[in-house]
Amino acid sequence: MSDQNKQTVIETKLPLPWLIGCAAAIIFSLGGLYVKVDSLINTFDKINERLEKQNDSFNTVNQNVLILGGRVDSISVKTDANTKDIDSLKQDVDKYLRGARVQ
After folding, report:
1. Which contacts of 44-53 are long-range, i.e. CB under 8 A and separated by 24 or more positions?
2. pLDDT tens, 15-30?
3. Residue 12 phi/psi, 5° resolution?
């Protein structure tokens, strides 16, 4: 039982400049890490803003394409109607000219 209750104390003596140097290195490393993380967050925010602007512009372009598609369809319908009217007019002119030649 006496072996189990024994506590071993290891005493190390480090020079004060080493402790201060190690502490300063750790603090500066954490500071540099903080700066890097902050920079990454700012970059991510900028990328996110650009992505939102691109999504907005994509939606605007998509809406314009749909509007133009509707306009093209209506112009196509009008063109077809005008083509039919022109064909009918040609037939009427041909009939008129044939009737004028006969008489």
Report:
1. none
2. 889 899 999 999 999 9
3. -120, 140
